[in-house]
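Moderator note: this is an archived Q&A kept for reference. The question asked for a predicted structure of one protein chain; the sequence and the answer are reproduced below.
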Amino acid sequence: MWGGPIPLAYTVQILVTLTVGIALVWLWRSGASTAVKVTGLIIASLLATPYSLDYDLMVLAPAIAFWAGDGLSRGFQGWEKTTLAALWIQPLIARHSRRLHPYR
C-alpha cells in the first residue's frame, strides 16, 4: 500500500512478525504482570498480521483497559500515559489516513 514491490512488503512483514514474536516471548518470560503480558499479546497480534485495517483496531480497547488497570494498581511510569493516549487515538488516525488514499 506504500508503493513498494510485493517481495519487499513480504520481507518487511516477515521481519516485523519475527521481531514481535521474539519480543513477545521475552515479555512472557519476564516478571511483568499478567495484564502487561496480555496487553503485549493483543498489540502483537495486530502487528503480526499484514491485513490489519482501521476497524480491526477495536481490539486495542481491551489492551488499553488491561494496561490502564495495571497502571492504576501499581502506578504509571512517565511514558505510559502518553502511550495509552496514543493507542486510544490510533483508530481515529488510521481512519483519516485511509481517506487520504482512496484506492485502499
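Archived answer notes: The chain has four helices and no strands.
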